[in-house]
Write a structure and sequence with these properties.
Two copies of one chain form a homodimer. Chain A contains eleven helices and twelve strands. The first copy, chain A, is an alpha/beta fold. Chain A folds into two domains: 130 residues, ATPase, nucleotide binding domain (Nucleotidyltransferase, domain 5), CATH 3.30.420.40; 173 residues, Nucleotidyltransferase, domain 5 (2-Layer Sandwich), CATH 3.30.420.40. The first copy, chain A, has a five-stranded mixed beta sheet, sandwiched between helices. Chain A has a five-stranded mixed beta sheet with strand order 10-9-8-11-12, sandwiched between helices. In chain A, strand 2 and strand 3 form a beta hairpin. Chain A is globular. The termini of chain A are far apart. In chain A, 60% of the residues are buried.
Chain lengths: 327, 327
């Protein structure tokens, strides 16, 4: 029998570009049930229904009251009103996500940008614990960003800050993804999507590599496949990870010069590539950034892997109900 | 007779890439004497002597006690110890500028990054007054940067933050200037030096333009000359300002996506170009940055022109002695 969750859990939801993860999370950030959906829906109603279903599944594993729900969305948001303002990947522009979900679920719902939340979890109990100034890059369909200034999440003048994936690294580069009107953003150069695009291109050029054979066999080229082949020693797959890592390093060199941070965290599935990704990123940053920032900063994977966002959503919900109880 | 300055002035010093400005500044940010040096010296001792001479000249205009000196330097610094850590343009690496000047002058000396100080002055009484989150780009030999977060200057983990001129906008661009090891930084693309470089190149290609005739006549191409010819209607000069303005706009689009600021200030001599520079910068930013940041931010010239840095150095010195008096 699956052990029941202690009373007083919250549900953390991470809404990704292509999937939804909801977790029942206790006060010590222990995860007692995970509900994963591999689609995030094509229109607003479908997105909301998929979130609702995942939250209900996670809630049913809880032997007691679910107190609140936190939701991380890959979008610029109005954190005070719980409205998604602009999403480069999801049909959520102008949608009051928190209010609509609260009506469906009968629970308090709190919302923030997904990468802000990932950074919140990592600062609370992960790889940025103890850092004063920290940055987060989450690599997935796009690149999300989070900024911690003097121990607090920086949101900007309207809650729309920290779109670190939309820093330009190549002003004449390819058009950016989704709804972003820019060119050569870090996101289009170094996200999980960019990894797949570059790997597919190189697979065509190197038909005898493991990557090339995978393409020819009709296996879809995915981030996890590239990482697996690279770990198995395929030079083409390693080359692609090196290219993406160096581009990440270019973006990180800008961030180091701008923020002089203690730590830059990299999260998302591609982190499984380990040093094949991190070493070129660190080398490129060190070759480009100014002292003393370049000598001080650490570039680290998230502790919670691709669950940082879900855990951070739980931290958001927990902090919010604790603040209400204290008020 | 020149009116004497009221008692209790401080001296603000702005150490630029190629010049030094010291001003005797009263409590209301009134400037009573300016001492300008058109060279900043070739080695550390010479730099310090030139600063000392300018401070002494400004001090002699003061009918009463000079209470303190503030110095802005174009360098990453350790603000607590008053040490210049790394300067891309000046022979000051590791030099305890504040201590050495204090010994020479017999006055308390306070130091900070020049663009931080320019932003401090503009926030106190200039174009960023009332802003919560603001950024400053000072265009001169290089590009200095300042960051205001929630009304306070953001310095980063070691006082080295806000090198906004060393954000990459073209990862395969030209090698950056001075001691910067990077490529395609905003500084090498859009500083005053870049303006002169691009103008000289275009003058060669367009011998019949006013810009081309100026080059052929042996007149050195300078930023003020380009601005003057552009205001007089020379298409080549306008084209160069448009190019520099658009590149600035690329960098500002990154800054808007990262910071969601209320205002981005642009300072330095090139601001005299006015809308010939600002219009292309704003157009490029609006075409590239994400909502809602792009619709909220204002891109403005500094109120104090190229005196923001000197005035900010005076604000720094004034605040420091006021804090000492209150302690």
């Amino acid at each position: 029998m699956v052990p029941k969750v202690p009373k007083g859990c919250v549900i953390g939801v991470d809404l990704g570009g292509t999937k939804v993860l909801a977790g029942a999370v206790d006060e010590r950030l222990g995860v007692h049930h995970r509900a994963l959906r591999s689609s995030r829906g094509e229109d607003t109603a479908e997105v909301l229904s998929i979130i609702e279903g995942a939250v209900r599944e996670a809630s049913e594993a809880v032997d007691g009251v679910v107190e609140a729900v936190g939701v991380g969305v890959p979008s610029t948001i109005d954190a005070l009103r719980g409205v998604s303002i602009y999403s480069t990947h999801l049909p959520l522009a102008g949608v009051p996500v928190a209010t609509l979900l609260a009506e469906r679920l009968g629970l308090p719902v709190f919302m923030d940008n997904d990468a802000n939340l990932a950074l919140l979890a990592e600062h609370r109990a992960g790889a940025a614990e103890g850092a004063g100034n920290a940055l987060m890059l989450t690599l997935g369909t796009g690149i999300g960003g989070g900024i911690l200034v003097d121990g607090r999440i920086y949101r900007g003048s309207q809650g729309a800050a920290a779109e670190l994936g939309h820093m330009v690294v190549d002003q004449d580069g390819p058009p950016c993804q989704g709804n972003c009107p820019n060119r050569g953003c870090l996101e289009v150069m170094a996200s999980g999507s960019a990894l797949v695009r570059e790997a597919t291109a190189l697979a065509g050029e190197r038909p005898r590599s493991a990557l090339g054979r995978a393409l020819a066999s009709g296996r879809g080229i995915t981030g996890p496949l590239v990482t697996e082949l690279a770990h198995d020693g395929d030079e083409a797959a390693r080359e692609v990870l090196g290219l993406i890592g160096r581009r990440l390093g270019v973006g990180i060199s800008s961030l180091v010069n701008v923020f002089d941070p203690d730590v830059v965290l990299i999260g998302g599935g591609v982190v499984a590539a380990g040093e094949l990704l991190f070493e070129p990123a660190r080398d490129e940053m060190r070759a480009r950034a100014l002292p003393p920032g370049r000598d001080h900063v650490r570039i680290l994977p998230t502790r919670f892997g691709d669950e940082s966002g879900m855990l951070g959503a739980a931290v958001l919900a927990r902090d919010a109900i604790d603040a209400r109880a204290a008020a």
